[in-house]
Design brief:
The structure holds two protein chains of two kinds. Chain A contains 13 helices and 16 strands. By secondary structure, chain A is an alpha+beta fold. Chain A has one domain. In chain A, a hairpin with a 2-residue loop joins strand 3 and strand 4. The relative contact order of chain A is 0.18. Helices cover 60% and strands 2% of the residues of chain B. A two-stranded antiparallel ribbon of chain B has the order 1-2. In chain B, strand 1 and strand 2 form a beta hairpin. The radius of gyration of chain B is 21 Å and the shape is globular. In chain B, 54% of the residues are buried. Classes of the chains: A alpha+beta, B mainly alpha. At the A-B interface, strand 1 and helix 2 of A face helix 10 of B. Chain A: This is C-type cytochrome. Chain A: InterPro entries: Cyt_c-like_dom (IPR009056), Cyt_c-like_dom_sf (IPR036909), Cytochrome_c_Peroxidase/MauG (IPR051395), DHOR (IPR010538). Chain A: One of its GO terms (molecular function) is electron transfer activity.
C-alpha cells in the first residue's frame, strides 16, 4: 500500500511538469494492465489481437476453442454438398460465416462509399425489422436478409444515404458528423408493413464475452442504483429477456439493446438469423408464410449444426481474450483518464468488476476485469434513436457498449467505425453523437482544449 | 562476410560443442535467424519458380505427363514453403496488415468459388465472365468470408488436381480441362496468373529478408528482446494454434476431408512434416538447404541453454519426437482421421497433436527462462 502511494506521488509530480496548470492525473492500478484479469488477457497487439483464447483455458477447452473457431470463421455452403459438416446455408442469409461480419473476431464497418455512392451491400451491418407492438413484419420477419442461395430471392437490398451535420467545439474547431438514412429497396415479396421500423446494428468485436457473462447480476443492478443516487441525470435500466438455454427471463447483457442474456442464445440466434443455420434451439428455418421459394429450399440436416459443434462455437465466443493495455501508466493516458472521469463518462462506462461464479467456464470466477460498461440501457437522445423498441428497451435507449480493446480496432479491422451502425468515423465522433442522458458529458467534452481532447482519445485508445 | 560465414557453416564440420563456443547472445541468435529466414525464402522462391516452369510447360502442351510433372513440382515446392511457415505469426513481412500470406496460403477454399465442381458444371470465376486479372482476383480473395479463396497454393493445387472425390487417391482432374473442356482457355489463364502472383508475393517477402539491405531483416536483427519474443511467438503459435489446432485437431474432430490442409493433392501428411521441421530449424538454428548446404549457428536453443540446459533439451527432444510422429502419419491423411477413437490412423495423428502440445508447453517454459511472460501460442 505504502509503495503504491509513493508511486502515485511520483507520477503526479511528473504530471505537473508535463501538464502545468491542467487537471491532475488519475491514479493507476497495476491490475488495469490486465483488463481481462489474469485468466483472460493476452499480450498480442497485432492483427490477431482479438483472436486469441484466454490463457487460462484447460487442454480440452483449447481443443474446443480451435474447433469452435473453425466453425466460426469457415463459410457455410448451400445444401446438399460434399462439405457435410458445413452445409445448410440459408435459404435467406446475411453472411456465410460468423467471421464474415466479425472479421478477425473484430468489428464490422458500414459498406464502402466512394464519391458519395454506396459501393456494395452491407455485410456486417444488419437491419432488424418490426412493426408496432414489437411484432415482426408479417412478410419479411424480424430481420432483413439481403442475400439468398440460388433459386431463392434475397428479401431486399439495403440503401444508405449519409447527411452531413456540421458543428463546432467551444474553441471554434469545426467538426462534421454523418447521419445515416436507411431504406430497403428491391423487395422480393411485395411491400413491407406501412409502419415498418428499421433498426440497423453492426457486428461488435468478440473479446471478453464470457467475462461479461460472469458479472453477477447484482452488480449490474447496483450500477443502476448508484446512478440514481448520484442524481446527475443518468438512469440506467436493465433489459430482461427470454433466454433459450436457461428457459427463463434473465438480465440482458449482449446486443446493442441488451436484448440477449447469454452467449449461447446469441450464437444460436445468429446462426439462424444471419446464416440460416438451424440448431436444436432454433429447429425451423426462418421462412415467412409468403416466402414459398424459401420454404421449398433443401435443408442441410435436422438440425444443420449439431449440439456438440454449437457448444464449441459458444465456448469459442466466450473465451476470446482481451488485449493488455498499452502505455496505461503514461502521463497522457492518465490525464485522459482523469478527463474521462471528470466528464462523468465513468458513470455508464463503469470501469471495473469482480466476476462471480461461472459454471460453463469456472476459471472466469473472481477475476478483476476492466470492461468499461454498466450493461444498462440509457436514453441516448433523439439523434441516435432508431425509434424501435426491443424487449424493455425503448426506441431511444441503447446499452452502454464495453470499451475494452477500442484502441486496437484499427489494427485488427483497418477502420475506426463506431456506434451501433458504424456512423462514427472515429472515437471523437462517437463521443459527439452522445446525447440524452449523456448530454452533460458531451457538453463537457465540447469545452475541452484541443490538448485535453487529444489526451481523452489517448486514454480511450489505450484500452 | 556473408560468404565467409557460409563457407564456415557449409563445411558442416562444426560439431555442436564448437557451436556453443560461438558467443551466444540475443544479437547473434537474431542474426543467425535472419540468415535462416533469408535462405528459407530463397529456396522456397526457387522451388516455386521451378513449379512455374513446369506449369507453363503443361499449359503449352496439356498431357498426362506434363500435368504430372507440374503436380510433382507443386509437391516439391511445398516442401520448402512449408518450412517457412515457422516465420509467421508476428506481423512480419509475410503476415503484417499488408503482408501477402492470405493471398498465398489461405485455406480451405470453396472450390465452387473458382471452378466447376461435381453437380455444378458452370460454377466459379473461371466459368463466369469475370475478367481474370490480378487486381480482380486480389479483390475477390477472402471476400465475404475467409473461405472464398481465389489465389495461392491451394488454388493452384485445385487447378492441378481438381476435387478429391475418391477415397484412395488425390483429385483426378483430366488434363483435357486445359485443352478441350469448356473454358479451358480461361482456366489456363487463371492458373498461369495465380502462379505468377504467388511468385511475386514470395519474392516480395524474400526481398525483405535479404542480407545487407535496408529492409525488415535489418530492423528485426536490431530488435533485441522484442524480436526474440517474436520468434518464440511464431514457434508457439505454429506448434499449438495453427498446426496442432487448426490443421489437425479440427480435422480429427470433424473427420471431414474438407478440413485437411492440402485436400486436392492428398499432400497433407507432408505439410505436417515440413511445418514441424520448420519449427525445429528455427529452434536449433540450423537449416539444410536445397543444394545440401547446411546453415548452422547461434540458436535459440543455445540461448535458453545458457539459462537452463534441461529446459532447452526438453524442447529439442519434443521437437524431434514431433517430427518423427509426423513422419509416421500414413497418406492419405483424409483416411487416417476417419474411424473410432482407437483406429490406428487416428492414433498416429493424435500422437502428433500430443507431441505438439507438449512442445508448446516446453516452449512457454523456455520463453520464461528469457523473461518472456504470457507467450502467445494461438491457443
Amino acid at each position: 500500500m505504502h509503495s503504491k502511494l509513493a508511486l502515485a506521488a511520483i507520477v503526479l509530480a511528473g504530471s505537473v511538469l508535463a501538464y502545468e496548470g491542467q487537471a491532475l492525473l488519475a491514479q493507476y492500478a497495476p491490475s488495469e494492465e490486465l483488463p481481462g484479469g489474469e485468466v483472460g488477457t493476452t499480450d498480442d497487439h497485432g492483427k490477431n489481437a482479438f483472436s486469441l483464447p484466454y490463457p487460462g483455458l484447460s487442454d480440452q477447452q483449447k481443443t474446443d476453442f480451435v474447433v469452435g473457431n473453425s466453425f466460426f470463421k469457415k463459410a457455410w455452403v448451400e445444401a446438399p454438398s460434399s462439405t457435410k459438416a458445413r452445409d445448410g446455408l440459408g435459404p435467406h442469409f446475411v453472411a456465410q460465416s460468423c467471421g464474415a461480419c466479425h472479421t478477425l473476431d473484430g468489428r464490422g464497418a458500414p459498406p464502402d462509399f466512394s464519391n458519395g455512392i454506396q459501393q456494395e451491400q452491407p455485410m456486417a451491418l444488419l437491419i432488424r425489422l418490426s412493426i408496432p407492438g414489437q411484432k415482426p413484419d408479417p412478410v419479411y420477419g424480424g430481420q432483413l436478409n439481403n442475400r439468398a442461395i440460388p433459386h431463392v430471392k434475397p428479401e431486399g437490398q439495403v440503401q444508405i444515404k449519409y447527411e452531413t451535420i456540421t458543428s463546432q467545439f467551444a474553441d471554434g474547431t469545426k467538426y462534421e458528423l454523418l447521419k445515416p438514412h436507411y431504406r430497403i429497396s428491391d423487395l422480393a415479396y411485395g411491400p413491407m408493413h406501412k409502419d415498418i421500423m428499421l433498426s440497423p446494428r453492426i457486428a461488435p468485436q468478440m473479446i471478453g464475452l464470457g467475462l461479461l457473462e460472469a458479472i453477477p447480476e447484482a452488480k449490474i443492478l447496483a450500477n443502476a442504483a448508484k446512478q440514481k443516487a448520484d442524481n446527475k441525470g443518468i438512469n440506467g435500466e436493465p433489459n430482461y429477456v427470454y433466454d433459450a438455454f436457461a428457459k427463463k427471463e434473465l438480465i440482458g447483457r449482449f446486443g446493442w439493446k441488451a436484448n440477449v442474456a447469454s452467449i449461447g442464445h446469441q450464437s444460436a440466434g445468429a446462426f439462424l438469423g444471419d446464416i440460416g443455420i438451424t440448431s436444436s434451439i432454433n429447429p425451423h428455418e426462418d421462412c415467412m408464410p409468403a416466402q414459398t421459394d424459401c420454404k421449398k429450399a433443401p435443408s442441410g440436416g435436422k438440425p444443420e449444426i449439431d449440439d456438440k459443434t454449437l457448444k464449441q462455437v459458444i465456448l469459442y465466443s466466450q473465451t476470446l481474450a482481451v488485449p493488455t493495455r498499452r502505455d496505461a501508466d503514461s502521463p497522457a493516458v492518465l490525464h485522459g483518464k482523469q478527463i474521462f472521469k471528470d466528464a462523468n463518462c465513468v458513470s455508464c462506462h463503469t470501469p471495473s468488476y469482480k466476476t462471480g461464479e461461472f459454471k460453463a467456464i469456472p476459471q472466469l470466477a473472481n477475476q478483476t476485469i476492466y470492461p468499461y460498461t454498466d450493461l444498462l440501457l440509457h436514453d441516448m437522445g433523439e439523434s441516435l434513436a432508431d425509434g424501435r423498441p426491443d424487449g424493455r428497451a425503448n426506441g431511444r435507449q441503447w446499452k452502454t457498449p464495453p470499451l475494452w480493446g477500442l484502441g486496437l480496432v484499427h489494427t485488427v479491422n483497418g477502420h475506426t467505425r463506431f456506434l451501433h451502425d458504424g456512423r462514427a468515423r472515429n472515437l471523437m465522433e462517437a463521443v459527439l453523437w452522445h446525447g440524452g442522458e449523456a448530454e452533460a458529458s458531451k457538453q463537457y467534452v465540447l469545452k475541452l482544449t484541443a490538448q485535453d481532447r487529444e489526451n481523452l482519445l489517448t486514454f480511450l485508445n489505450s484500452l | 562476410m556473408k560468404k565467409l560465414l557460409f563457407a564456415l557453416f557449409s563445411a558442416g564440420l562444426i560439431a555442436s560443442s564448437a557451436v556453443q563456443a560461438v558467443d551466444i547472445t540475443p544479437q547473434t541468435v537474431l542474426s543467425q535467424y535472419g540468415s535462416l529466414v533469408s535462405a528459407g525464402y530463397q529456396d522456397s522462391l526457387a522451388s516455386a519458380r521451378d513449379m512455374q516452369s513446369k506449369i507453363n510447360a503443361f499449359l503449352a502442351n496439356p498431357s498426362p505427363e506434363t500435368q504430372q510433372a507440374a503436380q510433382a513440382a507443386w509437391r516439391e515446392a511445398r516442401e520448402w514453403y512449408g518450412q517457412t511457415e515457422a516465420f509467421r505469426f508476428y506481423g512480419g513481412p509475410i503476415d503484417s496488415d499488408t503482408g501477402p500470406e492470405g493471398f498465398m496460403n489461405a485455406w480451405p477454399l470453396d472450390e465452387a468459388y473458382i471452378d466447376y465442381v461435381k453437380g455444378k458444371p458452370k460454377a466459379g470465376i473461371i466459368n463466369s465472365k469475370t475478367p481474370i486479372t490480378e487486381a480482380k482476383l486480389r479483390s475477390l480473395n477472402e471476400r465475404g468470408g475467409e473461405e472464398n479463396i481465389a489465389t495461392g497454393w491451394h488454388a493452384i493445387e485445385f487447378l492441378l488436381w481438381g476435387q478429391d472425390l475418391s477415397r484412395d487417391s488425390a483429385g483426378q482432374r483430366p488434363f483435357s480441362d486445359y485443352s478441350s473442356a469448356p473454358n479451358a482457355k480461361r482456366r489456363a489463364e487463371y492458373l498461369k496468373l495465380v502462379t505468377q502472383m504467388l511468385i511475386n508475393d514470395l519474392a516480395s517477402v524474400e526481398k525483405e529478408w535479404q542480407a545487407g539491405q535496408r529492409n525488415y531483416r535489418a530492423q528485426f536483427e536490431q530488435g533485441g528482446q522484442d524480436s526474440i519474443k517474436k520468434i518464440f511467438t511464431s514457434l508457439g503459435t505454429l506448434s499449438r494454434g495453427e498446426l496442432a489446432g487448426e490443421r489437425i485437431e479440427v480435422a480429427l474432430d470433424t473427420q471431414n476431408q474438407e478440413d485437411e490442409h492440402s485436400c486436392f493433392s492428398d499432400n497433407t501428411h507432408r505439410d505436417i512434416v515440413v511445418n514441424a521441421k520448420g519449427i525445429q530449424n528455427v529452434w536449433e538454428g540450423r537449416f539444410v538447404r536445397r543444394n545440401g548446404e547446411v546453415l548452422e549457428g547461434a540458436s535459440l536453443k543455445a540461448l535458453v541453454a545458457q539459462k537452463n540446459a534441461s529446459v532447452a533439451d526438453a524442447v529439442s527432444a519434443n521437437m524431434l519426437s514431433t517430427v518423427q510422429a509426423a513422419e509416421a502419419i500414413e497418406a492419405p491423411f483424409d483416411r487416417e482421421i476417419v474411424g473410432k477413437k482407437d483406429a490406428a490412423g487416428r492414433k498416429r495423428v493424435q500422437a502428433v497433436v500430443e507431441s505438439l502440445k507438449n512442445q508448446t508447453k516446453e516452449l512457454v517454459n523456455a520463453a520464461k527462462e528469457l523473461g518472456i511472460k504470457r507467450l502467445n501460442t494461438g491457443v
